Amino acid sequence: MLLASSANPLVIAHRGASGERPEHTLEAYALAIDQGADFIEPDLVSTRDGVLVARHENEISETTDVAARPEFASRKTSKLIDGQTLTGWFTEDFTLAELKTLRARERLPQLRKANTAYDGRYEVPTLLEIIALVRKRQSETGRTIGLYPETKHPSYFRSIGLPIEEKLVATLGDAGYDGADDPVFIQSFEVENLKRLRGMTKLPLVQLMAGAFGPPDLPGMTYAEMSTQPGLADIARYANAIGVEKAMVIPRDASGDLAEPTALVRDAHAAGLKVHVWTFRRENYFLPQDLRIGADPAATGNVTAEIHAFRATGIDGYFTDNVVEGVAAAR
Fold first, then answer.
1. Catalytic amino acids?
2. Interior CA angle at 163 toward 240 and 196, to 5°?
């Protein structure tokens, strides 16, 4: 199952069942597992005391109630991270005990109003807690449930003395995840940290790429260059798969509809790389123009048809916020 294939692609729960619960919470991961996801995806950042926790970014004002907590008002600050100045509250300025006093909230309340009913209920989970959840649900269901962690801003965290790679590999290894066939992918938008990881673990690695920009740790390099045949051959020397933005596989035309597929899937397969695509979401706001239903950006459109179009290109897996639809479309 690990790398899967186009005939039976992996369904990766993007930050858990984040279309129905606040993202990166144990409750979102548990729901995704119950809904049949093959893998759950925690984005990992570090606390001040070196514990790996799951947040989409290390700046947490959008995903927790930290801005409303007067005891932490003085922690608000500005930092330069991957070339961008961000202002807010950052995980590396909090101990795990302090983060555990915060509560998660919905990141997209304007599109997912129903999810705001869960604001204030859930904690920020640690990687160890996520692994424990997976082990418990595997025992209960008899299913293999994979982990798909992303190292967030690894060069930045290394620069401040909180490296992610060593802690991640050690934690996974202690849990028995250390082989090429174990149900774990480690992903990153950076390059050098994946190469570092390649020297530390046999677990499959995934080079993330977006249609614009380039890896934060390699100024001057673009993901467009990396997606060429020579670029993919280079990636295959240290990674097992690429995780790509949807538009790199099927762009949209001038009307906002799906256009003709690119050669990326074919070229990646020729280089020996699997292709996982991100991210499928059911709200009209995220869908091609011709797959939207009605005018409300928050209304549910035809995400199943979008997934089928991408499956036809031969992709090997995909990330989705909506696991029920994702599983149905995969089978």
1. 14, 56
2. 35
Rg over CA atoms, the chain: 19
Nearest to 127 by CA among 54, 46, 32: 54
Residue 181 exposure: Cα atoms within 13 Å on the Cβ side: 1
Distance CA 306, CA 73 (A): 43
Query: Which token pair is 225?
Result: 């260059």
CA-nearest of 195, 158, 64 to 120 is 64
Task: Give the Cα separation of 291 and 306 in Å (integer).
Answer: 7
pLDDT digit string (tens) for 7-66?
789 999 999 999 999 999 999 999 999 999 999 999 999 999 999 999 999 999 999 999
Which of 275, 274, 265, 279 shows the shortest CA–CA distance to 319? 279
User: Which residues 6+ apart lie within 8 Å of 212 measured at CB?
Assistant: 223
Instruction: Give the separation between CA 24 and CA 21, rounded to whole angstroms.
Output: 9
- Write the CB contacts of 230 (distance below 8 Å, at least 6 apart in sequence): none
The string of pLDDT tens digits covering residues 173-189 is: 999 999 999 999 999 99
Beta-strand relationship, 43-46 and 52-54: antiparallel
- Which residue from 165, 154, 149 is spatially nearest to 92, judged by alpha carbons? 154
Q: Where are the beta strands (DSSP E) in the chain?
A: 10-14, 39-41, 43-46, 52-54, 77-81, 84-88, 146-147, 150-151, 186-188, 205-209, 241-245, 274-280, 317-320
CA distance 85 to 208: 22
Buried b (16+ CB within 10 A) or exposed e, 212-251: eebbbbeeeebbeebbeeebbeebbebbbbbbbebebbbe
Distance separating alpha carbons of residues 105 and 165, to the nearest angstrom: 28
Q: Give the whole-angstrom CA distance, residue 121 versus residue 142.
A: 29
3-state secondary structure of 104: strand
Q: What is the pLDDT of residues 275-298, one digit of tens each?
A: 999 999 999 999 999 999 999 999
Measured CA to CA, the distance from residue 149 to residue 103 in angstroms comes to: 21
